[in-house]
Amino acid sequence: MAGTSDHDKDYRKTQSQIYGLQDTILNSTRSSRQKKEKGEDRGGTSAGDATRMTVNSKSVLEYAYFNFGEPRAVVGSFQYHAFKEARRETESMPFPFDLYELSAPRPFLPGYGLDMINHLIEVKISYEDLQASIQLKDSPRAMNNEIWGTDIHTDDSDPILVLRHCGLSPNDVNGTCRTPANLHNPDNIMGTVPPTGTPFEVEVQLLLLPPLQKYSASRRYGISSRQWGDGVSVPHDGLSYGVYSIKILPRDKSTENVKEKDQKVSIADWS
Q: Which residues lie in Basic and acidic residues bias regions (predicted)?
């Protein structure tokens, strides 16, 4: 019993430290709330307020770094799917599809436990899925605006919306802090986004972080993230995550219509 009591005490202490760090992140939110007119609805954040808000997540990242060290191994690699939750690439999709999920699919990322904090998840995103999110076509999570938080997001936030909110764009205009969950390199990009209209693939690593008591809304690069929690109610019941690294992979179409057997050349045929 003593061991259980000590464990619970340590857990509460850790959670208290995490929530305490939110004071830094939420200062701008509280200031904005105090300036609202009397009688205004206090349940959300307007687009205008979100645009002016400044959020600093460094304290949370430093907490994770000093308590857990460098991010650990990748625990899962998934191909993004606009209508289905994440599945390992070797798993098959269930059939038949649930028609309800075509308009309101489940969150893409799996629900990980606290033991997965400071681990990485890899998500592979196609150019078509990125464009669908921008065009609000065949992208229900984008149409439903499923993104909560700024820099650090709830684990049910859509990875593509999070990437776009951080400044990744298939167009020539990109942000300069596209990996805000990387404490030592906030723009950890491998490769270069090609000229507008040139297809490419994206491999993004997401860092799993502790749950926060509140996730602040903001508007960046045309994406308005939403607020979760008001500092008083029950906090988000899942983990958080942020973008840790991005890899841009050019799409080579030079052999697209050539059969695999014809792509192989035998030296013996050269004579």
A: 1-13
